[in-house]
Design goal:
Shape: globular
Structural class: alpha/beta
Radius of gyration: 20 Å
Number of strands: 7
Helix content: 40-55%
Order of helices and strands: HHHHHEEEHHEHEHHHHHEE
Number of domains: 2
Distance between the termini: 52 Å
Length: about 290
């Protein structure tokens, strides 16, 4: 009978890893594998079965398949993202529970309670949801994964309050729904998110020395000028993304965010993970816009 360490060593040196043609890909595969092995091993008390190794191989192939279609290049795959994908995908396959995939749509609400047509025309992501979704569907269906894709419009916004801009937000939602096959939700429609205490989120952001130091770097005028933002927008984005990330962790451990922002902003996407205890997989598909 082989030990757990020998079992893992054998799998790390199996065809699942060595079929990769480059050192970079082998490294990425191993990182996904280690995360998935720990996740499934915990469920099994590390009494692994033959079917579990098939599960681990599928997890690697699905994770790398998602990343291959993304805007990320293999040399820049974050370790935290590889681990997060290993965790989410393997636990979903093991438990036969669905993975929830979220698009967070940029808004096209303008002043005077109207839809800003100029903004609307700039939102290439609106017409890309189905294109990106089909890529994911094809991959997940190949491995018989259970999944659900949603588009979420962030109507809890500091500048365009839900109370004052209700008509514009609702029209924005309806316009997106006309051009996508996926259900479109307004953020305020999730009862469990509405109850999120944003004041508590803000206090936790500023009570962490690590996050506070990062906030100071991000909110300096030079950084903000490079991204065409002001401090108010950055503050609002940091609070919004942090509360979203925390909400998703409380909601489910089987969530992946399909990011469709045109680029990565230092005060936005990274803050999905600011207040989480487990990393959230956030994959950029701006290359498909």
């Amino acid at each position: 009978m082989i030990s757990k360490n020998e079992e893992l060593f054998n799998f790390l040196n199996s065809q699942v890893i060595w079929k990769a043609t480059t050192k970079l890909e082998r490294s990425a595969r191993r990182k996904v594998l280690l995360a998935a092995y720990k996740k499934i091993g915990t469920f099994r008390n590390f009494d692994m079965r033959a079917s579990d190794f098939e599960l681990l191989a599928d997890t690697i192939n699905i994770a790398l398949g998602m990343l291959e279609k993304s805007a990320l290049r293999m040399q820049s795959y974050p370790d935290s993202l590889l681990r997060a994908l290993g965790n989410v995908i393997s636990s979903s396959i093991y438990s036969e529970e669905k993975i929830e995939l979220f698009f967070f749509a940029s808004y096209a609400v303008g002043k005077n309670n109207c839809i800003d047509e100029n903004l609307l025309l700039k939102r290439k992501q609106y017409s890309a949801f189905d294109k990106i979704g089909r890529v994911i569907e094809s991959l997940f269906q190949q491995y018989n994964l259970i999944f659900e894709i949603k588009v979420v419009l962030p109507d809890l916004h500091h500048e365009f309050s839900k109370a004052e801009y209700e008509d514009a937000w609702e029209l924005n939602k309806k316009l997106i729904q006309k051009i996508t096959r996926y259900p479109v939700w307004r953020l305020s429609e999730f009862d469990d998110y509405v109850s999120t205490d944003t004041k508590a989120v803000e206090e936790r952001l500023h009570s962490s020395a690590t996050i506070r130091g990062r906030l100071l770097r991000i909110l300096n005028p030079r950084t903000l000028s490079q991204f065409g933002a002001n401090k108010e927008k950055a503050d609002s984005s940091i609070l919004y993304y942090s509360s979203i990330g925390r909400w998703l962790e409380d909601k489910s451990q089987k969530v992946i965010v399909l990011d469709v922002q045109k680029k990565e902003y230092p005060y936005q996407q990274p803050f999905y993970n600011a207040l989480r205890t487990t990393p959230l997989p956030v994959i950029s598909y701006r290359n498909l816009l």
